[in-house]
Amino acid sequence: MRAIAQRRYGGPEVLALAEVEAPIPSDDEVLIRVEAVAVSAGDALLMRGVPRAVRLAFGLRHPKRPIIGRDVAGVVEAVGPSVTRFAVGDPVYAESDQGGYAELVAVAERFVARRPSNIDAVHAAAVPVSGTTALQGWRLADVRPGRHVLVNGASGGVGGFAVQLAKAMGAEVTGVCRGSKADHVRAIGADHVIDYTRDDFTAAWGRYDAIFDLVADHPLGRIRRALTERGTLVLSSGTGGAVFGPFGRIIRASFVNPFVSQRLRPLAARRNGDDLAELARYIEAGDVTPVVDRTFALADAAEAIRRFEAGDVRGKLVLTV
Length: 321
Prior knowledge:
By secondary structure, the protein is an alpha/beta fold. It is built from ten helices and 15 strands. Helix 4 crosses helix 5 (about 155-170). The model has no long low-confidence stretch (mean pLDDT about 90).
């Protein structure tokens, strides 16, 4: 099959179209013929092998698995003998850990869900990692009607889902983004938008019941000022040092948490087919709409990653296969 493979860590130039062995589904796996695969921050980090601590798991000198990509949507090509919920031809989407920048990918049945019936494969591929992260983050924060929440990084993949899901849960939502993306963030449902180039959301004391921080551009102490006395800070992704990335910040938050009235909650989103099914219900109800900035052909994966890393993206970039 065709796939985008890399033999070493580096920039987009390490990605190349190649012929590789097609996967064979094991007993409990679903083999998906990929129609679309989204580009995510994790793809770019694994491509470069940063932060360097991740190489302990993914390969010290070169990637153990040469194919990146987690968000896939397509149709079932084959199923393992223990699979009961899916049949050949079913439209599905999933989060894969075997490399989605390919024509075929095998995923354990428990991580697969039927695609929302009202969107195509391109928009379905935009959902798994970003949508699951947003959903699990708001669960940590116990978002419900009457809460005022803030999303720092509201114009990105996770941020867009976080804004829409919080609105669907009945919250009042403030989104933080660059001014050029303010109209987009309002269009997906934010009640208020803060342009971070002009205003600092941490200047407001005790305003938000929950903050979903996807950027990590403020010290923890500053962000805590913007939370109510018993508010929740959800920490996900963001930047950090070259060796440990955002993990140092997460460790600090975990250390501080027992000594403050606020809840500081690091989020390590996990693959979950049930969450994908729940997201499908939100999408089919019209409460959430996946936002796709642009599509690229699979062979143009390097160009897509370059655009992603340049930062001028609203929603998700998707490769068509």
